[in-house]
Design a protein that fits this description.
The chain is of the alpha+beta class and about 325 residues long. The chain is about 40% helix and about 25% strand. It is built from nine helices and twelve strands. The structure holds (R)-mevalonate.
Length: about 325
Amino acid sequence: MTKITVSAPGKLMLLGEHAVVYNHPCLVTAVDQRMTATVEKTHDALFRLDAPDVHISRYVKPISEIGSGNIPKGAQFVEVAVKNVYKKYHLSEGVSIETSSEFSALFGFGSSSASTVCVVKALSELFNLRLNEKDIFDLAYATVLDIQGKGSGFDIAAAVYGGTLYFVTGGQKIEKLPIQSVPLIIGYSGLKADTVTLINKVAEKAKKYPEVIQNTYEQIDKLVELAKDALIKGDWQRVGELIDINQGYLELLGVSTQKLSSMIYAARDNGAFGAKLSGAGGGDCMIALAPKDTTNSVQKAIEQAGGTIISVKPNDQGVRIET
Ligand code: MEV
């Protein structure tokens, strides 16, 4: 085999963001908007990348130089992923990669993580490396840490395993929850958030008020445990209440914004079980859990608060071979 196409899902954080960076659990679901990578072996010892979604066109570099020098932002994750796989398995062949996405890189659905996972999986197939899910997770997570220095890896786990996961920092625990679906509504705030900036903002607060912030992480941990059980039981009322409490803690951490909060209150005031921001905060998306009969009014209210509804299905399949 010389060419393969692989896809991996985006993700949405349900509960537990920020605390999950510091050895606590979170709940994350894979969404049915996917990233696709077509990877082909070549004979020229060159690394080539086309990633139109992140403005990378005809990017070329000798394989011997990948991972070093100036790497354009849009090429970082794919290039460093290839470098990490090549280094570990002593590979040197040329490779040509094309990525494309069903979703905008602006939503915070984890396009970089999903493309990293696609590339690791594709290389495993092309070079017969026989990597299992945990091997793919470990290589892709190492890539994220090489680039960002920080992050729990929850987005990588969602892209690899799919479904809805109970996840602890660095993949210490990755448990797929036996659920069919979640009555989720997603509102995009129109603003792009930078995860590392927000993690650093929270870290500053933790330096200043260590006990308050540690205690907050522990409270979020408890919420995640309760929400895990409620999710499995399909007790959406209870999950919604826990989501609301989680949002209170995210306000405390200082990562919500006026826009996100307006969208969240709009959802709650129009019949949602609960609503919170999803991900790092500072922009990106909010989520609401709503009964069927209020879905329309909740969606309208989020739009009136300035949000854009993004239609996705949660609980999607993990990384898979397409052709
Ligand atoms: C960002 O989407 C979620 C954070 O918890 C970071 C992470 O877990 O890597 C803030």
